[in-house]
Every structure is written in structure tokens, then in C-alpha cells.
Amino acid sequence: MLLQKLNQALDALSALRDDGCINGFTLIGGLAVSAWSPPRATMDVDFLILAELTNLHHLVKALCDVGLNAELRRGGYEDPVPYLIRADSLDIIVATKKYEAEAIEQSVIVDVLGRNIPVVSPEYLIILKLKAGGPRDILDVQEILAANLVDRALLAELMARYGVNLGEQG
Hints:
Elements: H1 2-18, E1 22-28, H2 29-36, E2 45-51, H3 56-65, E3 70-74, E4 83-87, E5 90-94, H4 98-105, E6 108-112, E7 115-119, H5 122-132, H6 135-146, H7 152-162
């Protein structure tokens, strides 16, 4: 079921990108962690997209048109995720911060379950996880670092630029 939702989302997001409705997307979350470290269980698929806010309703409609039950959720002023599209087992976060946009622009094409998918780089995934800061996020950072695929110099530069640190994880 999750693979079917992933494929539906990839098809829809790719078409929207090709049509110019969104400027890009990248896989984040548990599946992205699994691309850079030992696989872990996840119950959903998470994407980060770069889109004009005026196109979000069109994006939701396009996701519904391919059979996903999509809705736009707006957070409050202090919400770390001001725009989220929830579509069945998918969470599509709309990039609103510079590091999120860079994460999309610097994504790497990876074969995930037989599909070439833009996946957030391990360095930007760590930044996203540290910014989120939940217990699962910290465990994910440890797993990514343990896999030894991280460009430590780039990570240090990004951490300094975006004001995050590894704390106990370093």
C-alpha cells in the first residue's frame, strides 16, 4: 500500500514539476534516512516541495485527481510547518525556509524501490532532522552519521550557516 502511494505521489509530483506548477521536490523522512543508512520502518512517505503558495490548491487537486485523498493544512504563526499537504500516507511539506529550498536544489537522484527519486542529501537531511529536533529525528541523525556517507566539512558549514549543532551526537 505504501509503495502504491509513493508511486502515485512521484507520478503526480513529477508531472507538476514538468508543468511548472512546482519548482522541485525531494524525499525526506524515514525513507530518505533509509537511503543513507540501514533501513528503518516508517508508516508514511514524506516529501519537501518548492512551490509558489498560490499553486497549492492546484497541487492538492492534482493529487486528488490521481486517487489520493489530499488536503492542505495551514499552521499558525509559530508552527514549524506552516503549509502541509496530507494525502493518505503522504506528508508533503511546502518549503518556506532557505535551508529547505537548498535541500531540494541539492537533492541526489537515488534508486529507491526501483524508481529514480530525488532524495535529500545526507548533510541536508541532518539539518532538517536537527531543526525538527524530535527524539526520532535525533536517532535518525545518529544512524546517518554512523553510515559514514556524510561530507563532514559540508555538514559543519551547513550547521554554522543555519545555527544548529549536534550536541551529544557529535
